[in-house]
Amino acid sequence: MQYSVFGSILTIGAMLGAITAGRIADLLGRKGAMRLSSVICSAGWLAIYLAKEPMVLYLGRFLSGYSIGIISYVVPMFVGEISPNKLRGALSSTNQLSIVIGLSAVYVIGAFVGWRILALLGVVPCGLLFLGLFFIPESPRWLAMNGEEEEFEAALRKLRGKHADISYERSTIQEYLTILQTLPKVTFLNLFDRSNYRAVIISVGLMAFQQFVGINGIVFYSTEIFKSAGFNPRLGTILFGVLQVGVTAGGALLIDRAGRRPLLMMSASGLLLGNLLIAFSFFLKAHSVAPTLVPNLAILGVLVYIAFFSIGMGAGPWLIMSEVFPLHVKGLGGGLVTLMNWFGSWVISYTFNFLMLWSSHGTFFLYAFVCLLATIFIYQMVPETKGRRLEEIHASLNS
C-alpha cells in the first residue's frame, strides 16, 4: 500500500497543479508559471532527499507532482504560442523528446546510484530551468492579450529574427485578440458552449486515452514487470530508456511531415500490439507454457509499447490540446485537460499493482481493449492540424 501511495501521490499533486495551472499561466505569464514550477519542484526533491520518515517522502513527492502539473500544461501551450506554423509540431515534439531524455537519464543513473542521490540530482534541471527563463522572451500572444503592445512586438521580433517580416503575423494576432475582447468573461460552463465543446471533447478524450492505455503502469513499474517475467530488470530499463529517446526523436521529425492524425492512429495501433505481447507473455507464464519464450515476449512487448507510445500518443495529445483551444479559453480548457491527464495517471499508477495481483495477463488485455477504443476515437474525432494557423484551426472547429 505504501509503495502504491508513494508511486501515485505525485499524480494527486499533479491534478491540483493542473486545476490551478491555467489561472497561474494567465496571471503570472507563461514564464512566471514555469519559474514558480521550478521552485516548487526543487523543494519537493529536497524534501525527498532529506526525508527521515514516510510522510516527508509523501510531501516531497506531492510537491514534485504539483509542479509537474503546472509545467505539463504550460510548456506545450507556450511552445504552441511562440512557434511558426511550419515548425509547431516539431518543436512541440521536442518537448516530449526532452521529457524522455530526462526519464531515460533517470533510468540509467538510477541503476547505479542510491535514491537519495537520485533525488538530489533532480534539483539540477529545476535550477537550469529557473535560470534559463531569464534568456527567453514571454509568449507574444500572452503579452498582446494583456495590453503590453511594445513588449508584444519586441518578443515576436526576437522569436522570428531581427530582419524577419512580422507584419502579417502581428496583425493576425491583434485582429484575433480584438474579436476575443468582445466576448464575455469565460467561466467553466463556457467550455461546453457550441463554439468550444468540440475542442474539449477532442482534448479530454485524447488525454484520457493517453493514460488509460496503461503508460504509467509500465513506466512506474517497468522494473517489476521485467522481474515478474524473468528478464534482467537493469538491462530492461536501460533498453527501455534508450529506445524511448530514439523513437521520440524520430516522431519529432515526422510530425510536421506525416501529420498529427496518422501518427496518432499508428501509435494507438502499436500500443494495442505491445499490450497483447505483454499479456500473452504473462498468460504463458501463468499456465507454465513455453517458459523460455516468456521473458523475450515481455521485453519485446514493453519495447514495442514504448516505441509506439513515443512516436504519437506521448506528444500528440499535448500538441493537439495546445492547437485546438482558442486563446481566451486556454487557461480553463488547458487546466481541465491537464487535470484529466493526471487523474488518468493516478488511476493507472495506483491500481496497477492491484490489477497485477488480480491477473497479470488480464491487466494487459484490459489495456489492449482501451487501445482499440483509442484507435476508433482518433479516427472518428481528431482533425488534422498540420501547417495551419491556430486561428484557422479554431475557426474550422466552429464551422
From TrEMBL:
Q: Where are the transmembrane segments?
A: 6-25, 57-79, 91-109, 115-136, 199-223, 235-255, 262-284, 296-320, 332-352, 364-382
Keyword Protein biosynthesis present in the record's keywords: the answer is: no
What Gene3D superfamilies has UniProt attached to this entry?
MFS general substrate transporter like domains (1.20.1250.20)
**Which CDD domains does this one have?**
MFS_GLUT6_8_Class3_like (cd17358)
**Highest taxon in the source lineage:** Eukaryota
Ranges of residues in domain Major facilitator superfamily (MFS) profile: 1-386
Q: Which GO terms describe its cellular component?
A: membrane
Q: Which InterPro entries does this entry report, sorted A to Z?
A: MFS_dom, MFS_ERD6/Tret1-like, MFS_sugar_transport-like, MFS_trans_sf, MFS_Trehalose_Transporter, Sugar/inositol_transpt, Sugar_transporter_CS
- State the UniProt keywords alphabetically: Membrane, Sugar transport, Transmembrane, Transmembrane helix, Transport
Q: Does the keyword Magnesium apply?
A: no
Gene Ontology molecular-function annotations: sugar transmembrane transporter activity
* Membrane topology field: Multi-pass membrane protein
Where does the protein end up? Answer: Membrane
Q: Which family does it belong to?
A: Belongs to the major facilitator superfamily. Sugar transporter (TC 2.A.1.1) family.
Q: What is this protein called?
A: Sugar transporter erd6-like 8
Q: Please tell me the species this chain comes from.
A: Nicotiana attenuata
